[in-house]
Amino acid sequence: MSRLVYSTDRGQLCPECHQAIDACRCKEIAEQQRLNNSDGIVRIRRETKGRKGKGVTIVSGLPLTGEELKKLAKELKQKLSTGGAIKDGELEFQGDVRQALKPLLEGKSYTVKISGG
Question: Which residue has the higher pLDDT, 2 or 83?
Fold first, then answer.
């Protein structure tokens, strides 16, 4: 296995597939696998792990791709008046907003479950 990270003929290389960064399709493949493994149920959970005790609400299982996910995140953040981010195909909102999120997502015709305690 080659540990080459830069080549004068191809430029910077992807560490996963060892292709040139411009030709790498690793993110697209990972996104497609995430969508294929979805069971159609949107899950909302609360997490504090690794956040110094600060709680966040995670929304996973959305069958949306990059731009659609960004658009939905922006809309939900505005309606909830809270901050948030998109990480690994999951929406992350600051604070415990599970009860407020559920009707908003159900209004967009998603099957929603609140998971965890």
Answer: 83
